[in-house]
UniProtKB/TrEMBL annotation:
Pathway: Glycolipid biosynthesis; glycosylphosphatidylinositol-anchor biosynthesis
Transmembrane regions: 12-34, 40-62, 83-106, 112-131
Gene from which this protein is expressed: Pigf
Keyword Transmembrane tagged: yes
Name of the protein described by the UniProt record: PIGF protein
A Pfam family it matches: PIG-F
Organism: Sapayoa aenigma (broad-billed sapayoa)
C-alpha cells in the first residue's frame, strides 16, 4: 500500500473511533436519562447508525474513480441491493453465532439482534464498502492463499 492510502485508512479508522466515543456522549444532551448502560438498546441503535453512516460516507469520499461501465445507475442500484441483502444475511449469521455462544434466544431477541447489527456494522459493512458484493473477491481476500 502507498503511504497516502495508509494515512487515509488510519484517518478513517480514527474517525470511526471518534464516532463511537461521540455516540456515548452526545445523545445524553438530546435524550433525557440516556446512559450507555441504562439505555443500551438506544445506544446500540445510535452507534450502529453513526458508524454505518460514517463508513458509507468515507467510502463515497475516498473511493477511487471507477470505470465508466460501472457508473451506470442500474449497476449502482443492483450493487446497493446486493450489499443490503449481504448485510442482512451477516446480521442473521451473527445473531445465530451469538445465540450459539449462549445469548438467550427468546427473552432478549431485540438486544441480541441489535448486537448482531452492531457487529455487522463494524465488520461486514466495511468489507462491503471496500470489496463490494462480489463473492469471488471475498473468497480471494479472506482465503489462506488469496
Amino acid at each position: 500500500m502507498k503511504e497516502a492510502e495508509i494515512r487515509r485508512l488510519l484517518a478513517a479508522n480514527l474517525l470511526c473511533v471518534l464516532s463511537i466515543i461521540l455516540t456515548a456522549v452526545v445523545p445524553a444532551f438530546f435524550l433525557h436519562g440516556f446512559t450507555v448502560l441504562g439505555t443500551h438498546l438506544t445506544w446500540l441503535c445510535v452507534c450502529s447508525v453513526c458508524v454505518g453512516t460514517l463508513n458509507v460516507t468515507l467510502h463515497l469520499v475516498l473511493k477511487p474513480n471507477q470505470s465508466p461501465k460501472r457508473r451506470s445507475f442500474a449497476h449502482k442500484i443492483s450493487r446497493f441491493l446486493k450489499c443490503c441483502i449481504y448485510f442482512f444475511m451477516s446480521c442473521i449469521l451473527f445473531h445465530a453465532i451469538i445465540v450459539l455462544y449462549g445469548a438467550p434466544l427468546i427473552e432478549s431477541v431485540t438486544e441480541t439482534f441489535l448486537f448482531a447489527v452492531l457487529l455487522s456494522t463494524f465488520t461486514t459493512l466495511q468489507c462491503l464498502c471496500v470489496l463490494g458484493p462480489n463473492v469471488q473477491t471475498w473468497i480471494r481476500v479472506f482465503s489462506k492463499n488469496g
